[in-house]
Amino acid sequence: MSTKSLPRRNFLQALSxxxxxxxxxxxxxxxxxDSYAGPVRHEALAPQAEPAPAHSINFGVCGISHNHVYGMxxxxxRGGGKFTVAWGMEPDLVAAMKKxxxxxxxxATQDEVINDPSIKLILSSQVANERAGIGVRAMKAGKxxxxxxxxxxxxxxxxxxxxxxxxxxxxxxIMYSERLEVKAAVHAGELxxxxxxxxxxxxxxxxxxxxxxKPGGDMGSGLGGRPEWFWKPEQYGGILIDIGSHQxxxxxxxxxxxxxxxxxxxxxxxRHPKFPAFQDFGDMMLxxxxxxxxxxxxxxxxxxxxxxxxxxxxxxxxxGYIEVRKYTNVAVAKQGNNLFLVDQKEARYIDCNNMxxxxxxxxxxxxxxxxxTAQDQAQCLLAAELVIRAQMNARRSHVDWEDKPGLxxxxxxxxxxxx
Length: 419
Prior knowledge:
The protein is α/β, with parallel strands linked by helices.
């Protein structure tokens, strides 16, 4: 190898790579695995038309504090729901919703929605710790209820929800959208149920999020573009309850576990010293009667990703495994709904973007037929219970280099979040 024309850094890199290559076994050399590689199949699910709604109901919204409510509304509309009445406490959010849904009646109080005799279902994305109370009142008023996640933030709320379900026979559903409204996650469930990877041993969920999706997106609040309640665990529930609820729902669903416990959990705040009660990292280990689970949560998605989070799901089975890259395929393609399946015969990539989402039609049918096809009631509440217990018992962990309160006047470190 000639080194005369190579800059010193390039020469050292080449020398290092050559040294590593000579130390590698033959089967690890580039190209040497070709003879070992099994079949690889790329496919896309065939386009499927959205089924026509089989039923029609009127529904209302009571609380619009989180914009997840828009996805919830659209899901119910796909199922045959007619959005007729709404209440919200934030004038700016009410104005935005009126612009999008000009035919909806907006009322001055929660009670006007809850006691409206013309609706069968109430949706809510009110501040998280207030959702269960709205749901209990809705069920007592004869309505079914669909909450944004987290739908319940403490054990007292959970007990009251369970008592009210038993007394009224009404449905208390929680929109765990990272499974119910992600096409690749839905197809993963179909494959698991078909036995495509054998018995499920473990799920791993990696769930990074982003405080702001646009640099400079403070929106004049001084709070990084988020409402004040976003930073307070007593209101949003804490990281394990909030974004962890999505992931524990998936653990229960894919493993088929009906009983489970939290083996260990921890949380931290390493980069948000202005909000010392906030939690920007957390993880937990779970054990169910039909499988194991691990969940990692954080608020550190870098802007270079191009979307709010690189959500990943890994499902390990006795005969293969599935990986779901939900929202992007990093450095390969911007599209989401990427599913990878490896079994004893081949490796497959499946583009799941063409499949319809079943939750809305199934949930409206459940309301009409008094069934639980869209979401199992016991599983829904078990997921809520597990994350509450994980949050309650979590170890508050620290690292030596974390930002400490009082060391900076900036709401966020500039290298990670908007100035």
